[in-house]
Design goal:
With about 325 residues, the chain is α+β, with helices and mostly antiparallel strands. The protein contains eleven helices and nine strands. The strands form two sheets. A five-stranded antiparallel sheet has the order 1-2-9-4-7. It has a four-stranded antiparallel sheet with strand order 3-8-5-6, with no helix packed on it.
Length: about 325
């Protein structure tokens, strides 16, 4: 039986039945995941063993831990306090078990070794034998911190229509781990070059067809006959933005068309255009256009086909 330490399987080790989690797949169908765990009481005690597998848990500690203990392969390890916002590494082949005295709140990224080596193959470098780390100690890695924090709204969203964004963040995390902790010496190994015209058309058509529900990045990359990592790099070089950013622009385009009809509530428009809720829609719309959806709608007059305040977004 295959064990993968994310979601409910990981939560079971911390006495949590269904913690929030998000998943993605690489081009080689290796799963990447992030799980949010939270425990507000003191003296939690021991975590239960996690099934051994060739994978890593990379923990972004959102809450400081002054007192904690760690066992690897049945042996107690020397530990240091975790500061909030720092990252710790756990090799699942070494049977990590923790003892927590204080409330804790980590985001755990699940990264199989096979997924790391898939990327090293794409970069034409040696396999990633290990992730450099010192067990029981954390590192201050702002890239992991910002990637993790960017996923929190998606972890808590009721509607899971942001798969392209989740894919983008988890694949970016994998790349960062390989380049920073995996012993890959040269960043110049990353292949350069944009997408071919037919690949651009194929990708945009697919993403437009799934503007509301979203589409996994691996499916778009597969339609372009390249890996996920190569697709993201090529799309950004060709279009000037990430696939997720491009999709957000298209959702705003669609929402603008819907807002010309004043009979439609903004709540319905937000959901119809693929946003998680009205708050998410308002936040993104205001950030991109400089005014709130309500202000834009009032200025446009709300008439079908109104063009008093045209808005031009990247295509």
């Amino acid at each position: 039986m295959k064990h993968e330490a994310y979601g409910g399987r990981l939560g079971k080790s911390f006495n949590m039945s269904a913690p929030p989690n998000l998943t993605a797949h690489t081009s080689g169908r290796h799963r990447l995941a992030v799980t949010e765990l939270m425990h507000d009481a003191t003296d939690f005690g021991f975590s239960t063993p996690i099934a051994r597998e060739e994978a890593w848990l990379v923990g972004l500690q959102l809450r400081a831990q002054q007192r904690h203990e760690l066992w690897l392969d049945g042996r107690s390890m020397a530990v240091k306090p975790f500061m909030a916002g720092t990252t710790s590494f756990y090799d699942l082949e070494r049977n990590p078990i923790a003892y927590m005295y204080e409330p804790f709140h980590p985001l755990f990224f699940y990264i199989p070794r096979a997924a790391l080596n898939e990327l090293s193959d794409e970069l034409r470098t040696a396999p990633v034998s290990d992730l450099r780390n010192q067990p029981g100690q954390s590192v201050d890695d702002p890239i992991i911190r910002h990637l993790g924090l960017s996923l929190q709204p998606a972890l808590r969203a009721e509607r899971k229509n942001n798969q392209l964004f989740v894919d983008h963040v988890l694949l970016a995390l994998r790349t960062h781990l390989v380049l920073t902790y995996g012993g890959v010496r040269s960043r110049n190994a990353i292949p350069r070059g944009g997408l071919a015209p037919w690949q651009q058309r194929q990708a945009m058509e697919l993403m437009r067809e799934h503007i509301v529900g979203g589409i996994p990045l691996e499916l778009v990359a597969k339609a372009c006959d390249i890996s996920c990592s190569a697709f993201v790099r090529g799309f950004k070089q060709s279009i000037g933005m990430s696939p997720h950013q491009w999709l957000i622009h298209r959702r705003i385009d669609y929402a603008i068309e819907l807002m010309r009809d004043h009979t439609l509530p903004l709540t319905e428009i937000a959901l119809a255009a693929g946003f998680a809720d009205q708050s998410h829609f308002t936040r993104i719309f205001t950030r991109k256009l400089g005014v709130s959806p309500g202000t834009w709608r009032n200025a446009s007059g709300g008439r079908a086909g109104a063009d008093e305040h045209p808005v031009t977004l990247p295509t």
